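Narrative summary of target 7.
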Amino acid sequence: MVDFPPRRKPSRKGSMADVPKDLLEQIKELERLFTVDQAKLKEVTEHFVTELEKGLSVEGGSIPMNPTWVMGYPDGFETGTFLALDMGGTNLRVCEIILPEEKGEFEIIQSKYRMPEELKTGDSEELWEYIADCLQQFIEYHHEVEDLEQMDSKLPLGFTFSFPVTQKFIDNGVLQRWTKGFDIAGVEGQDVAPLFEAAIEKRKLPIKLGALINDTTGTLIASHYTDDTMQIGCIFGTGCNAAYMENCGSVPKIAHYNLPPDMPIAINCEYGAFDNEHVVLPRTPYDVVIDEDSPRPGQQSFEKMIAGLYLGELFRLVLVDLHDNRCKIFEGQDISKLRKAYSLDASFLSFIEEDPFENLSETWELFSKELGIKANKPELELCRRLAELVGTRAARLSACGVAAICKKKSIQSCHVGADGSVFNKYPHFKARGAQALREIFDWPKGKRDPVDIRAAEDGSGVGAALIAALTIKRVKAGNLAGIRNTDGMI
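Modeled conformation, tokenized:
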């Protein structure tokens, strides 16, 4: 997760009056490189629609379009007590969610556990042992039982495993590839559900895995639970992704299940992989460097242009290039700290964009404190403009994925539930994305936007619990499509 500082006062507009000609020329070149105009937005969106369709086909494409076996939305009247386990990039979160009889309501208690860095590249068994240990601590603390085996019944659990998986069943998931800094040998290509269940069984924990989900799918379901006009769930944070509800008849790669064509099924797009072929995205030389120097070149091309993990690195690469090869920015100063890869994150850009002072004094202090660089006023203006360009491009491109789903599904009007640190905390991200949607769809000015991206409900906690509840409801109704193990569910 990208850590952002608290929001501050609205930022100032800025002035280029004192910027020397050579810096102005560099700023104009950066504007040319990073600006995504209306025509390009529309071109990207149209190609996106094609790639979404290709991902649903038998042959597949760059975008995985993973069927999740979440077969429909909650109706708001789901009840019961459920556990949710959220395995993200930074923390492990355990929640207990109570769904009362009141429509669309929920109660939640939760605990966070730091994910040790060494586990991310360590041994598979150590990872699952740590997760089981956190679950045991949570249950013992909140249920005050001395012997876990004496609990009356097993607690259904929704496991938010926010990595690309292939699911033949809702309670299993074969890891396609690690992301978010994880690289544990021997897990890719394996079903993670039995690995998790074995660690649970070893400790005799009173838990029944009801569903393995992605945080984006959880965001879709949790948001719809409280607002039934939500039709798309999105994540704009360390990574990027979207989920939506498709008809089974429109997913050729699951045709062999012979499901009713009008039965809904949630699709986890994993569209950070959009345009891995580099057909349409407006990549700059800096985007190429990020891709080539990444652990997995040629993958997650879209994500590398819009996700929080990469925004600071884009900004850093440009500044180093300007210093070394173009206009001698920060001339005569030691920029060794700036040369360190991924030393800046999205919060660095966020801070610059929110600097409310005309002289950019807070930006000056930021560069001085974090990088040991004493920037002059023209250099600060360039940095400010560069942060705006990188942040704006990310927001505008992010709108293309939402627009593509709307076009594919012929959605004329809906709410989109969005979560993630970039959406929630990066200044102007929502407004810039909304403006891009207006340009893609040519909406008339002065009217309310038909597609409105707004803050989502807790997808990885409440969403996971709701999906576990929906799975149990399906078992009771005899709708067992995509459910592997029904033992202990009713």
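The first strand starts at residue 66 and ends at 67.
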